[in-house]
Amino acid sequence: MSRLKSYLKKQNIELSAKRYFIDAMGAMAQGLFASLLIGTIIDTLGTQFGWDVLKEIGAFAKSGVGPAMAVAIGYALQASPLVLFSLIGVGTAANQLGGAGGPLAVYVISILACECGKLVSKRTKVDILVTPAVTLLVGVLLSKLIAPTIGDAAGKIGDLIMWATELQPFFMGILVSVLVGIALTLPISSAAICAALGLTGLAGGAAVAGCCAQMVGFAVMSFRENRWGGLVSQGIGTSMLQMPNILKNPRIWIPPILASAITGPLATCVFHMENNGPAVASGMGTCGLVGQIGVYTGWVNDVAAETKSAITAMDWIGMVLICFVLPAVLSLLFCELERKLGWIKKDDLKLN
Q1: Are residues 141 and 202 in the same domain?
Q2: Which of 235, 181, 189 has its CA nearest to residue 205?
Q3: From the CA atom positions of the chain, what is the Rg in Å?
Q4: What confidence tens digit (pLDDT) does each residue in 160-173 have?
Q5: Are the C-beta atoms of residues 218 and 331 closer than 8 Å to each other?
Q6: With 0-12 CB in 10 A as exposed, 13-18 as middle and 19+ as buried, what is 190?
Q7: Do 148 and 32 share a domain, yes or no?
Q8: H or E segment at 196?
Q9: FRET partner for 171 with CA separation of 20 to 30 A, picked from 4, 180, 203, 316?
Q10: How confident is the model at residue 237 (pLDDT cuts 50, 70, 90)?
Q11: Residues 146 and 174 in one domain
C-alpha cells in the first residue's frame, strides 16, 4: 500500500475531494465559459446587429465546448502536456455521446481518462506514444460505454427539477434559488452544476435569482467594511470571497439566503423569469452579468422561435428587481437587523 501511495504521489495523482469536486468542477465551469457561454454571447450580438461574422465566430466557439471542458479539467488536475492535449479527443467524444447531459459525462470521463494517462506519463521510453494512447483509449472507450447513461441520468434529474418547478413554482422557486445560491458561494461551481443538469426555464430563472441574491447581497451588506472595491469584487466577481468570514461567523450568511428565499418564488410566480439561454448562465448570477445575458439570450431565442411575442417592459422590470434591487434591499435589511441583535459585528464582513 505504501508503494502504491508513493507511486501515485510521484505521478501527481491526488485522491481528494478538493481536487475532484472543487478544483476540477471549478475549472470545468471556466471551460464552459470560454466556449459555450462566450460563444452564445457573441452569437447573440451577431443576431441582434445582423453581423454574420459574429454569428459564425459564436458557432465555432460553441462547437468546442467538449474539448474546452476536458482540457480545463486536465489543467486543474495538473496533467502533463501529452495527457492534457489528448483530452481534446476525450472531451469531444464524451460531450457528443452524453447528449443533453454532456457536461456531466465530460466531467466524469475526463477525470478518469486524465488520471489513467497520468499513471503512465513519462514512465516509458516511448512516452509520446503511450501516454496519449492510454488517455484516448480510456477516455473514448468510457465515452462509448457510459457517456450515454451519465447523460441520460443528468438530463432526467434536470428535467425532474424543471418539471417540479413548473408544477410547484412557489416551493421549488425557494428550493432551487436557495440551494444554487449556496452552491455559488461555496468553493464549488454552481455554474457547472447547472450546466451538468441542463437547468433552464423557470428553474433556471430561480437559480439566477439565488445566485444574484448571494453576490449582490454580500456586496451591499459589506459595503461599510469593503467600500467600492468590495462592491465590485463581490457584485460582479464572486461571493466566494466571503467564505473565510462565513467559517468564522456563519450568521453572516443568513441575509443573502433569506433574500434568495424571497426572490426565487418572486421570479417563478410573479415575473415568470426564465433562463432559456445556456444552462451554465443559470449558475453565474451577476458574475460579469452572465446570468442576465443568459436570460436576455433566452428572450431572443424565444422570440425567434415564436414562443414569445416580444420582450416587454415587464420582462426588464422583473430582471432588474430580481437580480439587483431586491437582493440589495433585502440583504441589507436582514443584515442591519442582525447587526442590532449583535449577530454581526464590526469587520465580520471585511475581506482580507
Answers
A1: no
A2: 181
A3: 21
A4: 999 999 999 999 99
A5: yes
A6: buried
A7: yes
A8: helix 190-197
A9: 316
A10: confident
A11: no
